[in-house]
Amino acid sequence: MPENVAPSAEPQAPQTVTRAHLIDWLRRLHATITEHRGYLTELDSAIGDGDHGANMQRGLDAVAEQLDNAPATIDELLKQVGMTLVTSVGGASGPLFGTFFLRAGVTAGAETEIDATTLAAALRAGLDGVSARGKASANDKTMLDAMIPAVEAFERAASDQAAAQAPTPAQAPTADQAAAAAAAAAAAAAGRDATAPMLARKGRASYLGERSIGHIDPGAASTALLFESLAEALAN
Ligand code: ADP
Ligand code: MG
Fold this sequence. Notes:
Mean pLDDT: 91
Low-confidence stretches: 169-175
Bound molecules: adenosine-5'-diphosphate, magnesium ion
């Protein structure tokens, strides 16, 4: 961007993430999980028990069924998604993704729209919940290897946005919520790909030891879909 462009005189409407955005996110997630179910099954067949596609499908089918009568506030919406995933998915991934949405909901609060900074805090709480529940950390070859860089990228972009809106000279790069989500999606995809050379230290794949090397982690692949669908929803 050229450096000497004067700021626009037009007052800009504050950008928010609405309940409708989040419902759109969940519908898109359901659609992309359905589309990629076979791929997720293939990944889990290589280093797990082959049920990840079916697990995610069952969970998102149950989530999607509730969206026509979704709760009025963002916290209740996300908590309902979390509870549904925890109760409907048998595998390790259900309680973990369920925890992500439950914690994100608690942090988002009883609102119908939130700003990018609050969404960043909600995503961070979700990530911390997954990490605590699964007792895993970066480089264990799990969903966290996509989720950690995604949340960090979102946080960076959201804080750049907050800095740019400050009254003092705004030299910080601007980034709106759509750009933050796009950065998170790109980081999640890179994190997914980075799981291939890793040795699995958590979950079923860890039973394979060295033989887990050379395969993408299925939960990291689902996590990339989760952030990709968030980016698509927030782009609208
Ligand atoms: P299961 O392993 O019970 O068959 P799934 O196949 O649905 O469940 O999910 C497997 C995914 O769950 C893995 O690819 C990994 O990303 C994730 N996972 C497993 N254990 C953990 C853990 N302790 N922490 C974080 N993610 C985990
Ligand atoms: Mg499995």
